[in-house]
Amino acid sequence: MAAAAALAAADPPPAMPQAAGAGGPTARRDFYWLRSFLAGGIAGCCAKTTVAPLDRVKVLLQAHNHHYKHLGVFSALRAVPQKEGYLGLYKGNGAMMIRIFPYGAIQFMAFEHYKTVITTKLGVSGHVHRLMAGSMAGMTAVICTYPLDMVRVRLAFQVKGEHTYTGIIHAFKTIYAKEGGFLGFYRGLMPTILGMAPYAGVSFFTFGTLKSVGLSHAPTLLGRPSSDNPNVLVLKTHINLLCGGVAGAIAQTISYPFDVTRRRMQLGTVLPEFEKCLCHHLTIVFQYHVGDYEVRLWTPWNSKRIISWLIS
Fold first, then answer.
1. Is there a contact between 192 and 258 (Cβ–Cβ < 8 Å)?
2. Which CATH number fits the domain that encloses residue 180?
């Protein structure tokens, strides 16, 4: 979701003059996007690997893993290496690394397509059409790469000694075979899509507000002339990073309930509560009178037997 908001808020690629023997502006523009794609992918891999321990702990706590549910964030960060070794903090990170590049490629291509369609078909321009195109591109990328996110979460939730999956390929095969084919990879997709709209909107709005307020009240302290147009002020790099972090934190907090719902749905079949729901027993009391005596019979029926009994 953060990538979608960042793509919507990003400035368009600069116009590059044609140079002799350079292949023309089209080739230069294609090179710009390729360079941006590779740089963004590598930066994404580095960033995700850096925060992978926190992400693993978040998955464990969101889904109430019975080994760590009584702990806080910092306590869990200490407990995971003690129980599973330091590599335990990086469970599921391999699937995330695989997901980053196709996610970025799909997002870039979809963003350009949606931006063109929104501009030509709907006549919407400016920041609004970039926000809409960025959100739609993010949704498209999420849908296309969602199975990898599902596998990543399943691997991250596993605890040493209680492995259901031995690796990425085994997780794909197991989920496909036991959870309804391809539909099994899309558990929790709806709260993911629903959470992207408020996240992108709040992030974009907050960042724009912080930027405009900062440049209007402290232009010399927070701003610098743009490299493309010296008459236009833009935020300094570290201020831009700070505003983006604040905007992302606020947006993530507002959309966090959707994230918790998504994780619980993704892990539904491996949570202890799932078996409890399937095998939940109700006590059916049959009461009748035989002469002067009251007879009561208790029988435990699970939900499937109750449904069959009601239908019959």
1. yes
2. 1.50.40.10
